[in-house]
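Researcher: Structure for this, please.
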Amino acid sequence: GAAARRAQGWQRQAVALRPRLLCRRERLLYPARRRGKFKTYDSLGDAYQDTAQVMRGLIPSHVVFNGRVGALTGKNALTAKVGETVLIIHSQANRDTRPHLIGGHGDYVWQSGKFSNPAETNLETWFVRGGSAAAALYTFRQPGTYAYLN
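Model: Predicted structure, token format:
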């Protein structure tokens, strides 16, 4: 169903645990190697030992930005030209965060994500509450690599 199709995107990034009620076919994919090779398990019980080992270490197997590896400064990075203005929307699920654009500033920042509120200007770092979103406008003034740090 629809829940199974949505869950497929997560399978490439993290351990996917899907409740029995949402999916007819249970299958757990576990990233086993750096190159994206996956191990498959027929049940959650079969995957328990490997999954517990990963969870104890609290070390993510994949870290992606914009859904792609190399999207910060690699071959999949977003690009802009000098003089272009970009709108950055930062949504945070459950933890507070402080994003920062290395090499630039937030020309206009709406920390609460509401455009009806006055924007703050020229912020190096801004605060996004857990469960909230923020928006920032930035105009690129010179060529270079600008990394978005969270």
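Researcher: Any notable elements?
Model: The mean pLDDT is 74. The helical segments are 2-11, 44-57.
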